[in-house]
Every structure is written in structure tokens, then in C-alpha cells.
Amino acid sequence: MDRVFYYLAGAAVIAALITSTFSLGIAAFALALAFMFFRAPRWIANDAPLFPDPSDSSEDGSDFEVLSESEDELTIRGSFQALTLNRKTKCVSNIKGVLCRFDQVRNISLADVYAQEGRTSGRYSVSLSLGGFSSITLGESNDQVGASIAAAKLSTWTGKPVSA
Question: What is the pTM of this model?
């Protein structure tokens, strides 16, 4: 069933490309139709998005959340992505695959994003620093306590220190 909708989405994109030489209005309509065909399987299955709507006030306002924690695996969600840390394989991964091994992580960085601009209200970023200019950012939050807890959880699992 999903393949049919994806085929129709592809056909609508091709139609949009062809008609764009004649009419931009028809091409825009074809692209909107392609989007609807692409999203149709998700709408039918009634799948919720991975990250909640920020305007939804039913949440407690925390930008970091431990989704699951067992003896061997931790899954933590930030505002940018969800990371899974596995103690058996000693790997950090996200939905796309393995990002790094624990021994590649130098430290867990908890940084005030606006500190250099001299702003009084802080926005705190939590990331795994891999050395040089490479890092894996979990997310950002206005809540310093939530960001500190997320950084401490990552530090406990990787065995690396938290640096501010």
C-alpha cells in the first residue's frame, strides 16, 4: 500500500517538473499533490511526529527526555535528535545509524549558546565533543537544569566528563 502512494508521489513530482515549463501554478499544485501522496501512509497509520509540537502546552516544557533506559541501552531525546547509547557495543547511534564509539567522545559539552552575545537569558546546548571541530549535538533548551541532567546522563553512560 505504501509503495502505491510513493509511486503516485513520484509521478506527481515528475508531472510538476514537466508542467513547470508551461505553468508554475499547475506545477505548484502537482507538488502539493505529491506531498499529500508522500504523507498519506503516515496519515492513514495515524503516526505521531517524532518531536512534539512546541506550541503544545500539555508538555512540561523540557526539551530533553529519557525515552527508555535499560541495563544495556539508553535512548534520550533532545530538541535536535534522539540518541541511543548501547553499553554492549559501546556505540552512540541515531535513527540513521551508528554515529561514533564511546572511545571517540572526548567530553560532554554543556554550553550557553548566547554567552558570547552578552544576553542575560541563556539557551543551553548539550553535545558530545569528538575533538577538533566535530561534535554530535543532542539539542538546546532554555532550561539549564534539564540540560544539566541530560549532560550528566550522557556522561554517566559514556564515562566522559562534562565540560561547561
Answer: 0.60
